[in-house]
Each structure stands twice: as C-alpha cells, then as structure tokens.
Design goal:
mainly alpha
C-alpha cells in the first residue's frame, strides 16, 4: 500500500507542477500583451497588474476570456512586423547590385590585386552572362589546379 501511496503523491506533484508552470506561461503572456497593447490606457494596465498580483487565477481567467481574441491579433501583428523587419534587413545586407560588384572588382583591379582577365570574368559574372558561376569561380581561361605530390628535398653531397 505504501508504494501506491507514493505513486499517487508523485502523480499529484507532477499535476500541480504542470498547473503552476502553465499558469506562469499564461501570466507572462498576459503581462506581455498588456504592454504590447497601445490602445489600453496606462491606468487600466496598472489595474490589470494589481488584480494579477492580488487575485491571480481569477484575473488571468477573466483576462483570457475578455481579451483573448485581441491577444492573438496583437501577437500576429507583432510577428508580422518582426518578420518584415528581418526580411528588410536581410535584403539590405545580402543584396548588392551588379554595378556594386563591378565597382568592387574595378577597385581590386586598380589596386593590382586581380588581373584584367579576372576582372573581365568577375564583370561577366556580375552581369549574369555565366549562369551558375559564383564570384569566386576561376576565370574562364584558367586551368584547374590539382594538388601534386611534394617534391623530395635535394640530396646532400656525400664525401
């Protein structure tokens, strides 16, 4: 009988732990929604917070029933804004126009870092004349290099 008593105590502990953690998730969702809502007056936000402190379970239940649909709309609106700003940032950072790529290649040519053939290749890649070729591809006339076996050191003369 002692085993079953301990077993149900463990089940009961798991249940109340789950309920407490679920309440904490709901509480943080409510608080974040309160501060996300720009239409709600600051005094009303303070009243909701006070009720959440002194009558937590009932207030959370009333808030979820009364303002639940608005919570979902505000959450979706914020997610869309975050996605749009992330996409805009990625487009700004990742994209460069063909004229930018050619200007970079010209600067490398002027500095003597690349040869005129490499410049011509980079220019053609930037303009899209060679499909599938990346900016780091070898020039069209260059032969691929293969690793060769190391050369043995010179023999030392014997006397």
């Amino acid at each position: 009988m002692d085993f079953w008593n301990n077993f149900w105590n463990i089940i009961w502990l798991f249940f109340w732990s789950f309920a407490f953690i679920a309440y904490l998730f709901a509480l943080f969702a409510i608080i974040s929604d309160l501060f996300r809502d720009h239409k709600l007056n600051g005094w009303w936000k303070a009243v909701w917070i006070l009720f959440l402190i002194f009558v937590p379970f009932l207030t959370a239940l009333v808030y979820l029933i009364a303002r639940g649909p608005g919570m979902a709309e505000r959450s979706q609106k914020e997610a869309r804004q975050v996605q749009q700003s992330t996409d805009a940032y990625i487009r700004e950072v990742a994209s460069s126009s063909p004229s930018d790529e050619i200007a970079k290649a010209k600067a490398l040519l002027d500095a003597g870092t690349i040869t005129p053939e490499e410049f011509a290749h980079l220019k053609s890649v930037a303009l899209g004349h060679q499909a599938g070729a990346g900016a780091h591809a070898a020039p069209a006339g260059a032969a691929p290099t293969t690793p060769s076996a190391p050369t043995p050191p010179p023999a030392t003369p014997t006397a």
